[in-house]
Amino acid sequence: MKLVEILSSRRLLLGVLSITMVFLMYVWVTNRPDNNPALLPPISDIVASFFTNLNSGNLMTALGASLFRITLGFIIGTSLAVIVGCMVGWYKTVEYLLDPLIEAVRPIPPLAYIPIIIIWFGIDEFSRVLIITIACFMVCVINVIAGMKNVPQVYVDAAATMGATRFQVFRTVAIPAATPFIITGYRIALGAAWTTLVASELLAAQNGLGFLLQEGRRYFATDQVMMVIVIIGSCAFIMDRIFRRIQAYLMQWSEARE
Amino acid sequence: MPEIKVNDLTHTFGKGEPGALTVLEGIDLTFETGSFNTIIGTSGCGKSTLLKMMAGLFEPSDGEMTLDGDIIKGTDRRRGMVFQQDAVFPWMTVAKNISYGPRLRGASKAEQRKIEAKWAEMVGLNGFEDRWPRELSGGMRKRVDIGRVYANDPDVLLMDEPFGALDAQTKERMQSDLLETWTKTKKTVVFVTHDIEEAIFLSDNIIVLSSRPGRVHHIEKVGLARPRSNEMRLTEEFLEIKRRLWSMLDH
Questions:
Q1: What is the pLDDT at residue A159?
Q2: Are B123 and B172 in a shared domain?
Q3: pTM of the shown model
Q4: pLDDT digits over A106-140, tens only?
Q5: Number of folded domains that form chain B
Q6: End-of-domain residue from the set B128, B153, B178
């Protein structure tokens, strides 16, 4: 994008404007003489904390541990969601069997499982990944089922009258027709993954971004807490952007691409 | 020869339950090989229902249908269908839509390319092979629908008001082009419409259904010469048929 284009893009301009405003307000508040830097650390402290943690290797270790958990939990959770969701959404027998179960479990927030998971599996890597997996699965599976149920009947009939078997209709019609829903499911799952990641690390971890937050609270290092919040926000943002790219690529055919 | 027969067919929605609705009653019809047949009737006469049953999308409560002597049960590639709604798969390009049927049966890449080229040409879509359906107009998408069904090489084509959603001019173009394709392939067509003029222009035989329940009220043999041109729509012969059929439909 050329500079002129950037400046003429109202959407981008206003977006940058609002972020800049919040940033400036923060700078202004922290520079007031009555501000307590222990509660609201100035930007310089936050940046300093970033470099301290970066140089000591703490940040990279934490980031590595968190990204590992989130990636693993996300991949397992969403993969299971696609398999189960497709079966439930397409095959009546599976639907009658599993739908009541999914509906019953759906309202339970995944964080509610943390105590029982800790009791069963301990404060372990497995436990944290499991919680993320559950969270990703639950939000994703609902979307996959909805996608399979919203496949327009006329596509199914058209394929059938061209001689497609029930399985061929599933593979060549239902899956692509449900793709918009499935991708939305993935994106929501990513949000859920971050939520549960931080929560599980706050409660039970010796490393990870959630642990750094907890450590910051324990030592009253608000600059560290703020720094980690910004890191989490940035990571989640970047991941979502990557997903939007994938979505735009897979949805080239769709009328509603963005 | 692939000849389609309907024997004493009756269909009741919710048969045996209170509020059951008989939509078709005692239908006996024979569609000869290579003929162009149109079923007309006011809305609610069960003409679309009849067509969907011929496709095998659902079963009649009584009676049966045969294609070339084989009882119709369930869908198969021998009876292709063009729907009133847009049924073009939006996630496939025009070419991929056209070769969908052959691909299901494991046609080689080379065969697929050949079929795509042939049918894109036949239905007037050459140059659009690599486009997404969203880039096409409603009329063009209907061409994809028709090309896709033809490319699948069925014995019979069932068309359920395929041009119902198109504007008048596009509709006339599509009718002429459909006749041209039909002349080249000589496949049996069963066409459903509520547009009398469309029925006369296209058909050899017009089946008029009465409504609630639908019964065969009249079969009109259209003697107009082929190939048919748009000018024929204004001839006395054409208009006379139109008047006759018009008076038969309940208004």
A1: 96
A2: no
A3: 0.86
A4: 899 988 998 899 899 888 889 999 999 999 999 99
A5: 2
A6: B153
**Would you call B89 and A154 a contact, using CB atoms and an 8 Å cutoff?**
no
Determine whether the interchain pair A162/B105 forms a contact, defined as Cβ–Cβ distance below 8 Å: no
pLDDT band, very low/low/confident/very high, at A258 (cuts 50, 70, 90): very low
C-alpha–C-alpha distance, residues A173 and A154, integer Å: 11
What distance in Å separates residue A143's CA from the closest CA in chain B?
19
Please tell me whether the interface predicted TM-score (ipTM) of this complex is above 0.85.
yes
Q: Write out pLDDT tens, residues B170-184.
A: 899 899 999 999 998
Domain that holds residue B49: 1-78+156-251
Tokens for B107?
């046609």
Is the same domain home to B99 and B117? yes
Of A159, A163, A254, the CB nearest to B90: A254
Contacts of A164 in chain B (CB under 8 A): 104
Q: What SS3 class is residue A40?
A: coil
In chain B, which residues have their Cβ closer than 8 Å to the Cβ of A156?
A: none
Q: Which residue has the tokens 């997903």?
A: A243
Interface test with A, best of B54, B75, B78, B137 (most A CBs within 10 A): B75
Which pLDDT does position A7 carry in this prediction? Answer: 63
Are the beta carbons of B195 and B43 closer than 8 angstroms?
no
**In terms of CA atoms, which chain A residue is nearest residue B79?**
A161
Residue A95: HSE in the Cβ half-sphere, 13 Å Cα cutoff: 11
Residue A3 has pLDDT above 80, yes or no: no
Positions of chain B with pLDDT lower than 50, given as ranges: none
Chain A residues near residue B51 by CB distance under 8 angstroms? none
Residue B38 shares a structural domain with residue B135: no
Three-state DSSP string of B6-55 = EEEEEEEECCCCCCCEEEEEEEEEEECCCCEEEEECCCCCCHHHHHHHHH
User: End of a domain among B111, B131, B153?
Assistant: B153
Same domain? For B22 and B9 the reply is yes
Query: Which residues on A lie below 8 Å from B164 (Cβ)?
Result: none
